[in-house]
Amino acid sequence: MYGYKLPSPETVCVTAMWQASRCIILLTLLGLVHSTVITNETSTLATSFEYIVVGGGTTALAVANRLAVNHTVLVIERGPDLVDDEVINDPFTTFGTPSPCHFQIQLAPQMGFNGSRVIPMTYGSCLGGSSSINTMIGSRPTYAGMSAVEALGNPGWGWNEFLPHMQKSETFHPPNPTQHAEGANFIAVVHGFDGPVGVSFAQPLIAPTLQDAAKNTTNTVFEGAVALSPDMGDGFSGGHYSSYYHHIHFNDTLQMDRRSSSAWSYLYPQDQQRVGLTVLVGHRVNTILTSTEAGGNITATGVLVEPIAGGTASTFNSSREVVLSAGALYSPAILQRSGIGNATFLESLGIEPVLDLPGVGANFQDQILLTNVSFPLAPSANITNVTGGGEVLLAVVVAHPTAIDTLGSNGTSAMNTLLRNISAERALSTGGIVASDALTTQAALIANAYEIDHPLIEMFYTPGPTAINVWAQSVLPLSRGTIRINTTDPSVDPIADAQYLTTEVDMVVAVAAARRVSSIAVTPPFSELLIENALAEAGVPQVGATDDEVSEWVLSTYTPGTHPVGSNSMMQRELGGVVSPELLVYGTTNLRIADASIVPLSVFPHTTLGLYGVAEKAAEMILQTAAGN
Ligand SMILES: Cc1cc2nc3c(=O)[nH]c(=O)nc-3n(C[C@H](O)[C@H](O)[C@H](O)COP(=O)(O)OP(=O)(O)OC[C@H]3O[C@@H](n4cnc5c(N)ncnc54)[C@H](O)[C@@H]3O)c2cc1C
Description:
The protein is of the alpha/beta class. Helices cover 30% and strands 21% of the residues.
């Protein structure tokens, strides 16, 4: 006998993905879930939690989710809850379309041609943080990169130990037969298949003509040295090119994509509801409250919180730990306001130091992007085939050439010499490092990584309606800057100074990347898709331009890579490290940091998938401490 069965409320909710908040409320009313509380009101909240997580961004929500399975956790996010915001949820509308989550910080004047440049850096401020607005390109650190991180005094952070944490976060969607036929591939053993973060190839994956042109031209420009990769996340992505996967949830039933931000992975879905989790939005953490133990160690006891809209400040207490996850731009500022940082600097602002830790805010670094490159399509090019008919498509082909692929053996050995004889003076004088050893050690590790298998640059091709963009990104910058508050007023942004391109080797890499961009535009079959004078039209130096001409162009056009890291680095304390391999702030008993600020070297070509690994590893270590192991 056949009967008609009504879909369960859970099924309705999964199908109506855009209405998740309403679904969660419905399910809660039906008594089907014990829902996480998301609120912007403090009056009804408890004042004490086992854990407090500062920030509600990419890493924060992942850590909070894992801790809240068995503990009470309060997350405090400065920005709003934008669960139903269509710009954020739809992967294809986020680029270039502002949302209430898009924010910019004005960087300190950076090096430019003939003087300095004032450049803003974009970041996300809402639940999910920057994962709610980013470009969703999925890439992982390399084996060589994680070896360098481990060698900075971080046992347990090599590729083999780190991989399981990235796998735990992930549900990888293998390419479907069409995507496979179009070039998408994967290696199953390096992926996870039941974690919260959806990772899949985009739909549609490619614009066929551009895909072919990009692959063939990459091959020619790098003289066949850059080979098709079976999987860009296998740890050996240097010297390869491939179609990218993205952090996107692909829903088989609906045949549609949705951004898999941290919020959509670890917070909103029904199966991620946590009765112990409270998320307070629209509130800023001004300071972390501390007490000093008998032995001189500092214990975090809670946080001082203020509503963004104005109103009375509140205090929340933590009985176990405080986890700082406000991102590479803001976490150092919160520590500094709390009296943790360079004691002399803090005193100059009238802040009483509770912990002298000179590395707070130092070792700040970001990749650069050469983005201002938009090559106009030739009238003869079949626009539909080249650009997918004017639809927004995600990155089509990405290439990760190594130093030897890009510079040849003479260039590589010249760069190696520069790296191994690096002068730390400028970084020291600007406060970018706290000891010259910090830079020479990092430079030697970067040189080793390049010798093994680390990408020197990343190049990707993306189509627009009438032009093709070729992006080049430096991957492992050596210039070091600072994040520093200049007032105790918590509503004022810190001074973020990336010191882009101030180290000679970074200019060498940028010039090499720019030269490859020029070569690509004049190399068939890619060049055949473009107008005849595409280089001049795009303002890019001609092939054969002098080094000075190329440097001038680089200095006039580069933009922030929006992958800032390192401002509370995980490395030895003597080198200016801020956190131990257990992510505990040195000199504290229970203050951890889990966000991009702990990453000591830019070994994640794109940061997000690696940061989910950091979050999973952080949560595991915190839970081990709670269990007394
Ligand atoms: C435009 C853009 C494009 C990008 N593209 C990619 C990409 O394609 N692929 C990729 O892998 N990565 C990409 N990234 C980088 C990646 O998104 C970030 O590195 C990553 O999300 C950072 O995670 P986080 O947890 O360190 O910080 P965030 O996710 O930024 O979270 C920090 C959170 O802390 C909150 N906060 C700050 N101060 C306070 C305070 N005082 N109190 C309370 N809350 C506070 C902020 O509002 C924010 O929500 C991109 C980033 C941007 C901005």
